[in-house]
Prior knowledge:
There is one protein chain. It is built from 12 helices and 13 strands. By secondary structure, the chain is an alpha/beta fold. Strand 12 (240-244), helix 9 (248-256) and strand 13 (259-263) form a beta-alpha-beta unit. Helix 1 crosses helix 12 (315-326) and helix 3 packs across helix 4. Helices cover 34% and strands 18% of the residues.
Amino acid sequence: MRILYAIQGTGNGHISRAKEIVPLLHQYGELDLLISGTQADVSLIENVKYELHGFSFIFGKKGGVNHYETWRSMNLPRFIRDMNKLPLEDYNLIINDFEPVTAWACKRKGLESVGLSHQASFQSRNVPKPKSIDWAQLVLKYYAPATQYVGFHFEKYDHFINTPVIRSQIRNLRVSDDGHYTVYLPAIDDKFLIPMLHQLPEVKWQVFSKHATFDYTSRNVEVHLIDNEKYNASLASCSGLLTGGGFEGPAEALFLGKKLLVVPMKFQYEQQCNAFALKQFGIPVIWGSNKNWLPVLKEWVQSGHAVQVDYPDETAMVIDRLVKQFAR
């Protein structure tokens, strides 16, 4: 059997999840990998057969997507050329982790594909969503369409939704509390973040920055370049995680039993939904309308409590069920 696994390259969660899924898929046949997008800070060890430009969302520095850079990076003629040249008919199973080129190529050619992603869970009406009309809802619906869906979310909100894929590196961590707080906010400029953290001088912060060009220390704030091993060590030994409204990062904090405070990106509907769901767990949220973070940060540091969720390791079972159900 020939399998194509197409992966979204924007953000780190898709590729991090793929690192757990790829070895499992190898057990079922000949596997080819495809990645499109340019905004990830982690990479696969495996050989990637197809590397495409795709459509990437470019992180800004003010808490949201940089719409200008996002639109400027899009290349529709190239997207169509890439769609047309993919030999999708050669595969018995096409799995798509929110990757648009393969998704639209399958749709155009009338081929079946399986959407295996966090975004796939939003096909269910049961997933918590804020009451808002946002153009980004259309992105979730039409960005990477599939004929079948297998989703991941913080809870099993529907029959086709599974709990998060927690990386083996995270499952094997030795958890402690050294008193510092870990920060990962890729859409926030350090120039905004660090002066605010200075206002809590009694707290030690370890910031992993997408915008810094070198490691440095500023009073009570350590700033590090994105490094997977350093981040994992910081997360394992922290008191809490201040992060965006993504999926994998908050899920890992819940699994490790760390205090969690999330700042969903502005005008990013998926992150707004994730934050809305986490709020039902009792997790505090700093919404885009909140211009003064300091009172929330102080309360979180001083009196916030951790929520721990024991997510079982069901990835092998999910992949086995998917292959047996959808391979042709």
